[in-house]
Amino acid sequence: MNILILGSGGRESAITWKIKENTNIDKIFIAPGNAGTNKYGENINIQVNDFNKINNFCIKNNINLIIVGPEDPLVKGIVDFFKKNNPDIFVFGPDKYGARLEGSKDFSKKFMQKYNIPTAKYLSVTNKNIQKGINFLETLNPPYVLKADGLAAGKGVLILNDLKTAKIELENMLKGKFGDAGKTVVIEEYLSGIELSVFVITDGKTYKILPNAKDYKRIGENDTGLNTGGMGAVSPVPFANNEFIAKVENKIIKPTILGLQNENINYKGFIFFGLMNIKGEPFVIEYNVRMGDPESEVVIPRIKSDLLDLILSTKNQELDSKTIEIDNKTATTVMLVSGGYPEKYAKGYEISGLENIKNSIVFHAGTKQDDKKILTNGGRVLAITSYGNNIKTALDNSYKSIKNIHFEKMYFRKDIGNDLLKY
Ligand code: AMP
Ligand code: GLY
């Protein structure tokens, strides 16, 4: 069997690292990959949204399965493209209609409302009903949450403390502040609690719950400064005890899967539930139709079962015949980023010391191979994952490993997981 994995981040490194355990694989390719994925397979220089090139490559290389890492190709319809042009290839991910759970906030809110899934109160607004939006804002308490309906590279959410600013920003968004993504704006009630992420793999009929995780989105310690793609993650989340996860399963996961079936959505893939825990009750902040990054770098290392076997079982909706085994150990990951990120940063610095890492797994993200050297090639550069019997020992391992690694202007948060030590 030959497999193509789409993407180039830490998430795709973790997926590739895991599935290569399966001995039925002949070849793994990663498009476009990074300097780490080429240790587990072969990188090919094709971009994730170039469906025609991907298809030509698949035909030439007898690809049987495509695993899609990021949301963009899913939202653009890669599953539908292959169904039409090359149905022999199994593309793991939801079709374009299902990917709207992430690709359209308006769609996902309507879906949650229809299936009684706990989420924040909301109103969708366009240029045609601005006044209704302004009236709705006036009924809410601060802070005010404004979201561009479409994908906006993680930047389409504004949280504003002041009503006047919220009204102005609503108009700015509708005027094109986030381009077409903001032509519809979802105004939401603010949910105050602790965030966490729960993941499932589904074949559209049934599901298996994967390890949960908490990520750290802000660039600065104590959750200050700009939002990033994620600066570190911990799995499992100690406050997500059995009672809480049972609530998530009954009030959120089961109705979501039922909704997919009722809406005839062809969904074989991962679902990432971004949740808020409000005094022990889970609410959905957002759906993502893929794994998280850096959550994958702690979730996937805790899956003991054969992940490829689980993925393949979704093709003919046979996931119910499988069991999933999870490692009880804690996993933590700390992201090493380029100084300046998430704003302007430089690329091309040489990374040294990786050969000295013995007690952690190094998942490459923004890296590239240049002859024998490994160079930085993005904002988030490496995810340093470690296991431990508890959060503290896992984190100690990650931070000890990091002492060996150097590149110019390297930055990382030193407080990943600190907020969880009290549980
Ligand atoms: P989203 O893209 O919908 O996940 O929003 C990005 C981030 O904004 C989330 O991870 C939360 O930290 C925050 N956020 C979004 N919606 C809300 C809400 N209704 N209440 C509080 N925080 C929110
Ligand atoms: N770490 C958040 C995400 O992958 O969307």
Structural write-up:
This protein is α+β, with helices and mostly antiparallel strands and 423 residues long. The chain folds into three domains: 2-92, Rossmann fold (3-Layer(aba) Sandwich), CATH 3.40.50.20; 122-188, 2-Layer Sandwich (Dna Ligase, domain 1), CATH 3.30.1490.20; 194-420, D-amino Acid Aminotransferase, Chain A, domain 1, CATH 3.30.470. The chain is built from 13 helices and 23 strands. It has helices at residues 10-19, 37-40, 51-60, 72-75, 78-85, 100-103, 105-114, 130-139, 163-174, 242-262, 296-299, 307-313, 391-402; strands at 2-7, 27-32, 42-43, 65-68, 90-94, 122-125, 144-148, 157-160, 185-188, 194-202, 207-209, 214-215, 218-220, 224-227, 232-235, 267-278, 281-288, 330-338, 361-364, 367-370, 373-376, 380-388, 410-411. Strands 1, 2, 3, 4, 5, 10, 11, 16 and 17 form a nine-stranded mixed sheet that branches. β13 (218-220) and β14 (224-227) form a beta hairpin. α8 packs antiparallel against α9. The longest helix is centred in the middle third of the chain and has 21 residues, at 242-262. It is globular, with a radius of gyration of 21 Å. The mean pLDDT is 96. Residues 215, 229-230, 288, 292-293, 295 line the site of glycine.
